[in-house]
Design goal:
This protein has 141 residues and is mainly α. Helices cover 67% and strands 0% of the residues. It has one domain. This is Leucine zipper transcription factor-like protein 1.
Length: 141
């Protein structure tokens, strides 16, 4: 079992997020696949094409795919900001100040650990995972 060093609750939250991200990724990849299918169905009706025609088709396809990928990258960035907003809002309720280390986001070793975690925990488990936003519960005695 791959571990990222979280308690069970936080590990389940990470699994929820990774499943969410994977579902968004799958949808975007289907959209990109449909860009290619649309080109095949709408433009590839003749048996032979000139170099200029092929170049025009590829440029059009490049523009569409680039737009789709750019839109997804922007959406992913905004989604991550919303996730950070949730975490920071919860922390601020208890007068905590969380810090991030952006340099760790490109740490190849850590990224490989996350990939292994996703492969073993997210894609192969059938655990029931709460898909609702996380909340902080504090009890006082």
């Amino acid at each position: 079992m791959a571990e990222l060093g979280f308690n069970d609750h936080h590990q389940n939250e990470v699994i929820n997020y990774m499943r969410f991200a994977r579902s968004k990724r799958v949808l975007r990849l289907k959209t990109i696949d449909s860009c290619f299918e649309d080109l095949k169905e709408s433009r590839l009706v003749e048996e032979t094409f000139t170099a200029d025609e092929v170049s025009d088709m590829l440029e059009g396809l490049q523009a569409v795919v680039r737009g789709e990928v750019e839109m997804e990258l922007i959406n992913t960035s905004h989604t991550n900001v919303l996730l950070l907003r949730q975490l920071f809002s919860q922390a601020e309720k208890y007068y905590l100040k969380l810090q991030t280390d952006v340099s760790e986001l490109e740490n190849r070793e850590l990224l490989e650990q996350v990939a292994e975690f996703e492969k073993t925990e997210v894609t192969t488990t059938n655990k029931k995972v709460n898909v609702f936003p996380c909340t902080v519960e504090v009890t006082s005695s």
